[in-house]
Amino acid sequence: MITTNTGKFIRYTGLAWLSALMTRLCWADFWLICTSVLSLVGGLYGLGNLLKMPAMRVNFFLISAVIIVLASAFGVLFGFVSISLVSHDIWEITIDYAYTTTVDLALAQAYTNTFAIVFWLLGNRLHHSGMIGSVYQDIATCLHDYKRILLMLVVAILICQLYLFTINVVVYGGKDLATEGEPTHPLLALITPLVSVLPFVLAYYARGYFQAGRWVAGMLFIILLLGELNWFFLFGRRSIVYFFILLFAGLGHANVLTGRGIVKNIVPICISLFVILTIADTYHKMRSVYGFQNLQRMNLVDGLTNLKTNTDDEKYDSIRKMNLSVRSAYSSLALGQFVNLFRTTPHEPLAGRILMTSILLATPSDFLINKKSVLAKEALYESSYSLRLTDISETLYLEAFIDFGWFGGFLYAGFIFALFYGIYALARHSNNPLFSLIVSCTSVSLALAMIEVDMITFLANIRTLFVYYLVTRLFFWKTEPRQPSYGMTETSKTILR
């Protein structure tokens, strides 16, 4: 069964293929804009579907599809318009530097849409199977019936974070550059996927306490949220955005969000957006003023205190505008480079080498192979195609394209679906509400990061979820089996009708 908004998501994102093909005939810039706008409209319809259906907001595939389309389409559109307004020649220089063309960018967007459509269809299949509904019910059970265990987990994560801060494992930018190439600290590797639970849970309980008039308890949770924001701040601008999305997911959990409700709350929404953009801009300003490596050795409190006096506002504004324009289109430029490579040269896709190396590198330690002997990411691309690459944006749909060409989206999506189907099935049949909550928060966090997650990171998170399952069984080994939910709720049926 396909909803109206689902049909429009597929229709508009699919229609973008037609405008992308038109770039090969005439008016390439015009058709690139049309491709991006059609994709953006389709993504917004998909977002509307997620806002109306609370259970859909824990579905990895549906969220990923929307994020992929919106981020890539908006990125290309914003980058093209903002740079071209300054000078169209600068835009031409930018895409030439990335070894791509306007035609390739439009085709890259169309391919990205195909990847997202496959994800959307797979997500709908999961939703209508009742599997997502069961996991969603478990989340409510965990939040209401297992509050003590959940708060114990939150406290444990906060203590681990404080310890990692104290020993300087986590610094500005996340991992210390001085430890590049060394194994990640085991405690950091263990809690990183779990961190996404904190903003959601703390915001949910803070809302409940304030609604019940328990202001002291509510303020305590707000203080904990501010402390947690410090962790996300250190990992970058996108991480800050993810924090607030997870926070709003906790505040609006189980609520149906309509256009009328958004308009009614437009003032707090605008204030929230201003706060998010200000904090994200502060992160980038510190990096521009002090330098990345210097910040990893600095006291961040001192850096924030002296930031205003050390900043040349006019110079920084010009840097910020150019950075935003180029970085917004970063993933599309990277994909466009390989579209151009396969379209204009005899080079062929890598036929699964990226997937195989990702699986090898995602295994614990050097269990299967000496990881230092494995070429991956940029090193693999450079050796295979004699390219010179620097910090290209790694995404699953980019790796799928380099690995299998135009059919890569179907193959990678199928592989990812098999993995997540196993995770969701385990959550559904394990009678383990805590694990279901962890799976939901982790999957939402992964979906939000689809514009920067590669297969190695993805597989590492899946591996860690299986570890969490074993650990959470210690808390729920005596849980009474609940009645399985094979269908959808009445609300779901009404909206999907």
Automatic annotation (TrEMBL):
Name of the molecule in the record: Oligosaccharide repeat unit polymerase
Listed transmembrane segments: 30-48, 60-85, 105-122, 149-174, 186-206, 215-234, 240-258, 265-283, 404-427, 434-451, 457-476
Keyword check for Magnesium: no
Keywords attached to this entry: Membrane, Transmembrane, Transmembrane helix
Domain of life: Bacteria
Keyword Methyltransferase: no
